Amino acid sequence: MIRRLERAALPEALEDLTGLLRDCVQAGASVGFVLPFPVSEARAYWADQVFPSVGRGVELFAACYGGRVVGTVHLAMAAMPNQPHRADVAKLLVHPDARRQGLGRALMQALEARARELGKTLLVLDTRSGDPSQALYQGLGFQVAGEIPNYCRNTFEELYEPTTYLYKVLA
């Protein structure tokens, strides 16, 4: 089940979100963190960075299974006055044990539907070039805008990898 997490529900989801982020990073996800990645850093990301922004320009979607959060994605509204039509997609995470079941696609479809409700006509995101997520995004109609070499550090070692920027015009 996909649902939008409201501010009041965030504290009860903290441990699931913390574990989800930690497990995805440990599995090699390129979502801004590198190993070693302590639980305290994962918890602080949610509690100190994400939770304060939910309902204040960020919407957080969760895929729930068996009463636990097993996937998530952020919809972040553009902050500048000349970009009221645009939003960013960030941190699409699906637990390694829950992948290949359509949760990433379902999360993105829920995010896209909400973006449309909010009057957004352009979504933008970036992903490590060649990741399975790139194929998912392109399968959902996102177009490649370009690639930046040496953009992000590999999760496991000090090796820098390219990132691909994608966009989707919402009709």
Overview of this protein structure:
With 171 residues, this protein is an alpha+beta fold. A hairpin with a 6-residue loop joins strand 6 and strand 7. A seven-stranded mixed sheet has the order 1-2-3-4-5-7-6, sandwiched between helices. The model has no long low-confidence stretch (mean pLDDT 97). Helix content is 30%, strand content 35%.
Summarize the topology.
Blueprint: E1 2-5, H1 10-26, H2 39-50, E2 58-65, E3 68-77, E4 86-94, H3 103-117, E5 122-128, H4 132-139, E6 143-153, E7 160-169
Parallel strand pairs: 4-5
Antiparallel strand pairs: 1-2, 2-3, 3-4, 5-7, 6-7
Report the structural category: alpha+beta
Low-confidence stretches: none
Strand order of the largest sheet: 1-2-3-4-5-7-6
In helices, the fraction of residues equals 25-40%
Series of H and E elements: EHHEEEHEHEE
**What's the number of extended β-strand segments?**
7
Radius of gyration: 15 Å
Q: Tell me, briefly, the overall form.
A: globular
Main sheet characteristics: 7 strands, mixed
In percent, how much strand structure appears in the residues?
Answer: 25-35%
